[in-house]
Automatic annotation (TrEMBL):
Lineage: Bacteria, Bacillati, Actinomycetota, Actinomycetes, Kitasatosporales
Listed name of the protein: Peptidase
InterPro entries, per database record: Clp_N_dom_sf
Domain of life, per lineage: Bacteria
Species: Streptomyces chattanoogensis
Amino acid sequence: MQNRTAYSGADGSARVDLDTQLTVELASVVSAARRRATRDGDRQVDTAHLLHGLLESDPAVRDAFDGGPRIARLLGYLVQRSIGYGLQWHGTVEDSGAVPAVTEGGVPGWSPAAAAALDGALDRAHARYATRAGCLDLLAALVDDPESRAVEVLRRASVDTALLAERLDGDGSGGSGQE
């Protein structure tokens, strides 16, 4: 089993391990999610931070949503999280129930659901024998957790998450920058 706690940012050598498992584009999304969480005053990176980074950074992710108006609506909800929509999340830990609540030994700086999504992206990439997880891998992993904040935002923006999951499962490419 490979060390996947690297995204905690706690250990420099572990971070190198994670960097070898992500495409350049996905590494950029992860960095953007960390910055956004810090800027918003959130204690942890959550799945909505990751979704926001994906939508802003990757054209293949945007293409998965069938058009500009839906993307604009999604980004609108995500931007509002610090000034309105999403304020109920401020200062709370995202635990969707998809994974057991972590009380000890969790990934510092990451919600349990966000850590599970990144693990899911890595698993999806490894299942197709890719050396690196891409942005579509992470999007598929986010959609796989029906109780995550990312899926809550998607549903609020009228995205059919079951259809999106089906489309992503049929794609299998992992996203732009795939190796």
